[in-house]
Inverse folding.
């Protein structure tokens, strides 16, 4: 499973690199699948509301009203119909790509189970919304969908009378049935919206809007596609005859040929098994994650930087409990903490320069405390001794620099490294320069690692990288797992540049307290 | 966040990204109606047998003693099981039995009507249909019988239904 996941993840990474060039990393659609899904939902909702103005729910009028808006008013309502259909189809594509990508990036297990599980229910509601929509057109395809759906539902044996009997003959179908379908086609998407909202509840600053440029591209291409290949109907439904050959919507209705070919029991069993397997995937097996971040109140003044930086809404501000003269302290919800360490990097107390007492910060990772990271950095520096242009790499465990290498410290996220650690490495002459090698720019494994690191270095988000840190000695490389060649090239070039520079004038060697091993620090 | 809102200098991304997105939309548009699915083979018609009909209840006359024990306004002369009898139905096409089923009553207590919805795909052509139904197990043979000569054209959908009020099968 791990090998398969790595293979799929690398496949995504390669495809995303191509799209990086076409769209730019910030507009890369594969890194914006969630926001695009939301955008498509609203496109479908708005176009659907517009279509409803012209739609007639009568048995004979439904088809006629759709034909009227498609042909006579193609330039507004017809485009809205095509937008409605194609945005729904793309929503299915985006949904499954999103699912596959999150699985490949291993972002569905452990503390992230909630988003995955709620997403599974979103799948079925997207399908139900689409199926009820196709029904309303009341063309040959709608007739086929109505018959196959009701025949399948009747196998459950829960209806007093087989609902497929509504489609025995033209006389047996009433307009009230259509009114019911319209109600379902409004109610189900509303429930879908509720589920989508629940789906994003356990993440901070959930992205529900794609960047404007990408939104413009998506909408523009949908409108252009609607003009080039407008959605059409397949002839009026006629219950006295059967549609033999049909143009199927293979995104929303691909199950229908299967339903026709397989016994109903197998279909229901398949749906159940598929849903249970997919829903249970986060526990097959469960992801092993480090212990949740721990708060040390003696070093926490409740500044809330960690609250703002946590990508998973795992940290909250609560009233002070220890009597110290601060109004608040932070509290970690262990059920949501993925141990990315971003909170540690954001804490103003996380300074490796600490010389009075042990190196304890306001919020720390029990499995990878700041004291240990400092000790690792010092140990990694030893491997660089004597080399021209010594580069210390602080690497992300999910990017191109995830493999261990001399002079490299691999972290769960590069934003775990407080900016003062870079200052520490350069000013204590542990290296001539620091390379921060994170995930690909388009999408951070821990959502905000790239963004927060950038903002801290640009001094637009606390904690800032101090002015005194020579920027020419700091390199940031955002590279996905398949970009090792570019990473090596950039690191090599950086090494050469540093080799040509004179030694950093402000550097001085470590003092005894700073070299204390992590165990000793912890013991203190 | 990384999202840049400045569109200046993004002409290449707008053009390339737009072109790629348009290809995706057109592919989606094409796949939304193509390739065609052959739901029913050519020159084939569909015959459906569907009805809901209640089997009889097992009833007996109340004795004089039983009636006397009841309040005057509740003295129904018969007492019936709640559960209904299953309905037996058979359909022959040109003498060949294609449907033969005992339809149990619906509902948890078996007090609802029996129901059936069956599809039979047939090559287009002329056929002789024979239908038999028994809604009372105490009756030997069948309680309702009917025969139809039908002529099915390709893709035609014909339904056989039962009207309980007239007690007759009929065609839709």
């Amino acid at each position: 499973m791990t090998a398969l996941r790595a293979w799929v993840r690398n496949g995504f990474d390669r495809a995303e690199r191509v799209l990086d060039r076409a769209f730019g990393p910030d507009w890369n659609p594969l890194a914006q699948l969630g926001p695009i899904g939301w955008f498509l939902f609203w496109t479908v909702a708005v176009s659907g509301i517009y279509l409803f103005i012209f739609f007639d729910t009568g048995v004979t009028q439904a088809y006629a009203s759709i034909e009227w808006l498609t042909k006579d008013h193609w330039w507004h309502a017809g485009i809205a119909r095509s937008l409605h259909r194609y945005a729904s189809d793309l929503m299915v594509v985006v949904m499954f790509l999103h699912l596959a990508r999150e699985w490949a990036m291993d972002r569905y297990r452990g503390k992230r189970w909630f988003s995955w599980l709620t997403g599974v229910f979103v799948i079925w509601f997207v399908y139900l919304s689409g199926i009820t929509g196709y029904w309303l057109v009341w063309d040959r395809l709608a007739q086929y969908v109505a018959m196959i759906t009701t025949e399948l539902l009747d196998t459950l044996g829960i209806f007093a009378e087989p609902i497929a009997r509504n489609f025995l003959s033209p006389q047996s179908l009433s307009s009230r049935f259509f009114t019911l379908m319209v109600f379902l086609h409004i109610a189900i998407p509303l429930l879908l919206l509720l589920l989508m909202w629940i789906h994003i509840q356990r993440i901070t600053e959930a992205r529900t809007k794609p960047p404007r440029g990408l939104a413009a591209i998506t909408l523009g291409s949908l409108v252009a596609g609607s003009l080039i290949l407008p959605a059409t109907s397949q002839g009026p439904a006629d219950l006295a005859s059967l549609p033999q050959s049909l143009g199927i919507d293979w995104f929303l209705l691909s199950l229908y040929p299967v339903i026709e070919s397989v016994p109903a029991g197998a279909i229901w069993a398949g749906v159940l098994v598929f849903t249970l397997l997919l829903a249970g995937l986060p526990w097959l097996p469960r992801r092993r994650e480090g212990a949740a971040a721990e708060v040390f109140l003696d070093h926490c003044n409740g500044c809330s930087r960690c609250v703002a930086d946590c990508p998973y809404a795992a940290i909250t501000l609560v009233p002070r409990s220890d009597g110290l003269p601060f109004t608040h302290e932070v509290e970690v919800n262990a059920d949501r903490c993925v141990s990315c360490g971003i909170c540690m990097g954001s804490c103003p107390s996380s300074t490796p320069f600490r010389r009075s007492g042990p190196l304890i910060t306001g919020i720390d990772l029990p499995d990878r405390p700041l004291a240990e990271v400092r000790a690792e950095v010092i140990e990694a520096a030893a491997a660089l001794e004597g080399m021209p242009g010594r580069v210390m790499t602080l690497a992300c465990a999910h990017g191109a620099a995830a493999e261990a290498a001399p002079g490299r410290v691999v972290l769960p996220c590069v934003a775990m490294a407080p900016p003062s650690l870079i200052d520490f490495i350069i000013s204590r002459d542990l290296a001539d320069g620091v390379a921060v090698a994170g995930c690909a720019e388009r999408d951070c494994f821990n959502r905000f690692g790239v963004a927060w690191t950038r903002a801290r270095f640009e001094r637009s988000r606390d904690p800032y990288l101090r002015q005194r840190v020579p920027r020419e000695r700091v390199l940031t490389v955002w590279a996905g797992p398949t970009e090792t060649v570019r990473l090596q090239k950039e690191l090599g070039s950086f090494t050469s540049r540093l080799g040509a520079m004179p030694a950093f004038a402000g550097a001085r060697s470590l003092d005894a307290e700073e070299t204390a091993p992590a165990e000793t620090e912890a013991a203190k | 966040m990384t999202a840049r809102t400045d569109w200046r200098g993004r002409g290449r991304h707008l053009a390339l990204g737009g072109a790629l997105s348009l290809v995706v939309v057109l592919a989606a548009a094409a796949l939304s109606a193509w390739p065609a699915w052959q739901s029913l083979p050519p020159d084939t018609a569909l015959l459906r047998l569907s009805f809901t009909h209640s089997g009889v209840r097992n009833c007996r006359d109340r004795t004089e003693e039983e009636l006397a024990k009841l309040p005057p306004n509740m003295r129904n002369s018969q007492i019936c099981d709640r559960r209904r009898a299953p309905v037996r139905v058979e359909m022959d096409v040109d003498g060949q039995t294609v449907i033969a089923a005992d339809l149990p009553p619906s509902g948890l207590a078996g007090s609802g009507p029996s129901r059936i919805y069956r599809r039979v795909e047939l090559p287009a052509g002329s056929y002789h249909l024979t239908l038999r139904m028994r809604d009372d197990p105490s009756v030997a043979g069948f309680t309702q019988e009917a025969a139809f000569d039908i002529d099915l054209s390709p893709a035609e959908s014909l339904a056989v239904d039962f009207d309980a009020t007239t007690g007759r099968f009929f065609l839709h």
Remarks:
- Strands of chain A lie at 245-247, 294-295, 315-319, 328-332, 363-364, 391-396, 408-411, 433-438, 474-478.
